[in-house]
Request: fold
Amino acid sequence: MMLPKLSRYALIILAIVVMSLYLPNLYNKIFDKKTGKTQLFFSPVIKKFMFREMVGEGHRFVTQDENGKTYDRQSFETLIPFVYYKNMELWGKLPLTIDGHVFDKQTIKKNRQVFEFKPRMIADRTPRIQVFPLFESKPGVTRLRFPKDAFRMTDRMEFINVDTNIVDEKMTGQFTQALKQAKFLFPAKLVAGKVSILKPFDEGFFIVDAGGDLFQIKRAKGQPVIVKITIPAGINIRSIKIPENKKKEIYGILLSQKGNLYLISYNKYRLIKMPLINYDPDTMDFKLLINPLYRTAVYSSNQTIYSVAMDNLYRPIAQYHRVMFTGKKTMADRVFEVIFPFYIKTMDKTSGYLQFNTVGSGRLFFIGNAFSLPFAVLIMRTRKFEFKKNWFDLTVVIFTGLYGLIATIIINPEP
Amino acid sequence: MFLSILYKEWLKIRIYWVIALMLNLFVIGWLFLGLRHLFIIEHAEMIWYQIFEIGTLHYTHVKYFLIITGMIIGAAQFIPEMIGHRFRLSLHLPIGPNVLVLWSALIGFISVGVLAVLDAVLLYAVIGIYFPHEAAQSAFLTVLPWLWAGLIAYMGTALTAMEPQLSRKLVYLAIAGGFVWFFCSGHDYESYNRVLWKPVLVSLLFIPAVFLPAFRYRNRSL
Reply:
């Protein structure tokens, strides 16, 4: 009799796992509300932070500055004219004059850039097969083309011919030798680059060697071009993102193991540290908005949005943060906490890897668990199951609430 | 006695196992032909780009065939036993009924497992013809949860077939289906790499779970 009893509890555990995988998802599918994240900007006109936030279903937005003053849509856009410069042109407001400087369409277009860095973009948060095409940086034609080989970093820089799937020893020897001459230590710790032929030009790959040093590797007219980049001591590189933007102000963004963000500038590869407070690269989306006057870093978790406005030299001039409407708990969130004591989280937009983590729903779970218990007792009485024999069912219900209640009912004890 | 049970189970499933083997070989063969055709009509560098950067998976159909295999073997092994209550005869063999059920389930589990290993090895070999070993290794890691889903499909079918009560059959189907769905829910390559061990460990509970339906069958039918 012992074995069937254990077998029953095995099935109850399996049922609880399945329910905690799918029932919370089903609940969210039914009760989720349409809420967008807050858009936050620094106004170069009034020198204040301004935001536009969805606060309900349909098109219920609030548009305010950091002091709580409300604006209509057009006034809001007029106060951040570098973002909405096409509307400014349409409304006949170009050229603009701000702080005595005149900005026409071309100047704005030339001096603006938006750069995003999301947790999913961190090298160790999304799987990537470590084989990459090294583009010809000087193709001699108007567009980049995919090369006929791809490389991987082993104890050398190995090029594999894509037609034959065989290592190209000549090319491999050529690049490996060049890297060794530049004091590159194999194997590589990190390979970062933008694999696209739609980019305007190619900056090759930024590769961290076994010693933690950073190198830029390009192919120019078939020949290796290697630059060893001096980075300040103590910065252990975790990830790099290369945007390859026509503006040619920054090569890319570098994330250190300590969670600090740096821009790699075109000015001798100098690293510019972003002055961010409470930034968590594993959970927060980061955006850098560059316009002719200011640089604004905006980063947010699910609850709070932060921003730092900087001058052209990336010196902070103002900071702001607020709890977003999407971060506020709704009635549906509270009911969720009551019904589901926990759930198994499998997907997360911050990572390309799936999870299987048990996550507590919140403090209100004990209400649901407390309600489940008398139900379980009632059902045991109705079905005439002995408490003495089946006390463990009640323990299961106490700890797993609704899941345990359903599981012990549908997989009832054997007489 | 184990060899006798093995022989008995093999007699039941051999035709279906060979059909499943052919089915799985066909799937891998189809993959090979598909890749060969792709490399004829498309530039190799674009195919490599699509696989490594875009994450195109050319072997997603592998996902379904071991699940079908698990269901076929599970059904072939236990449904005939339940028809006409033949399972009662098996339970009278000179061996404990729980041991008999466990051996029977393990034999079926291993027979599906052999096909899973075959699928994985052949997939690695086929991908390795056209892509570097990194891609073959990635394909192997990507299909692991799908292959495990095939084994869960087998266990779910065995549980369902042995269970005498219809409503409880549906419960077992839902539990097994929930696990199978989870193991097949990743859409990108290697997305289960960091987590696979956890649900696999939990789903091992399907093995002791077979005792309950067998117990219920025995106590209601004898």
